[in-house]
Each structure stands twice: as C-alpha cells, then as structure tokens.
Amino acid sequence: xxxxxxxxxxxxxxxxxTYMKVVNEREWNGSxxxxxxxxxxxxxxxxxxxxxxxxxxxPDLYPNTDWVGLILKNxxxxxxxxxxxxxxxxxxxxxxxxxxxxxxxxxxxxLSWDRVSLRxxxxxxxxxxxxxSIDVNMRKTSSVNxxxxxxxxxxxxxxxxxxxxxGRAVGRRQRRHEPLRENAPRGxxxxx
Length: 192
Prior knowledge:
about 190 residues, alpha+beta, five-stranded antiparallel beta sheet, 5 helices, 5 strands, disordered C terminus
C-alpha cells in the first residue's frame, strides 16, 4: 500500500517586521508608565519602516527566513508491502511472511524509517498426541533522525529575526538579546 502523511494544521508565523512590531508593543504595554519606554523602545521606527529595503540590499544582515518552509515538506510518502505464503501437508504446515515498510518524515532532511521483517511459522504433528511449533521472527529496522528536533518549546529555540553575523541584534538600543531572559521577572539589578 502507498499513502501520504500530511501535517494536520500549521500556524501562520510572523515575518521579521511583524515580529519587531509585536516585541515593541509587548515591551511598551509591559512597561507601565516608565517614561524611558516608548512605542519603539526595542526596534527603531526607522528600522521597521525600512526593513524590506534593507533586506533586499543585505539579506544576511537583515534576514526574513521562513523556517517552516525550509524544514518541513508539504507531505511525506509512506509505503507498506506484505506477502505471505502458506504450504504444507497433513502433518506439517509452514507459513512465511515477508514485509517491507518505508516511512519518510515531514522534515526536509534527516528523517526516515525503513523496516524489513521476516516471519516463519512451522507447525509439525509428530504423533496425534504430540505437536511442535517452531517460530522464527526477524526484523531489521533503520531510521534516520535529526540530531536536533525543531519541535521544542518556543522559548528555547526562538530565532532572533534581526541579528547580524556577529550575534548583535540589529536596531536595538544597547540591550542584549537573550530569549530565555526576555520573559524572566524583572526587578533585580543582576545583569541589567
């Protein structure tokens, strides 16, 4: 048999400009009445307004990567084949089954699974009151899995969409981008 696997539903992700606007709004809304925080406290208005032009001029410095499109395929083929043979006489019956399964994952690379199986079943009647069965099962499975799965909580692997090659956030005002600390409670002076 041959079939296809599809993702049931995929969320729509923000592009770089929408991400910057949302981060600015989150910072602005979460600041309360702090005068130093304005609508553009993280990413400058000029950067947001000109981002697509900057992206065309230097996509490495001003990226807009569709990670889902790069990592996932629209479908993944799956196939399974089985064949069985039965033979025998009144005193001896043999059943042989061979199977092959191949599953390709939804990841673009590094995800597949193959299995070959063999089963031999022998039923032997030695006397009317004595019977024996000999069963042999063999299976060989090989799988390829990614060293890192992108399906982890967003807070642990969220890419910064506005980083240059040296790891500095583009358009930020003297502030380090640390995704795990962004949502940490504030109030202490450690690292601020």
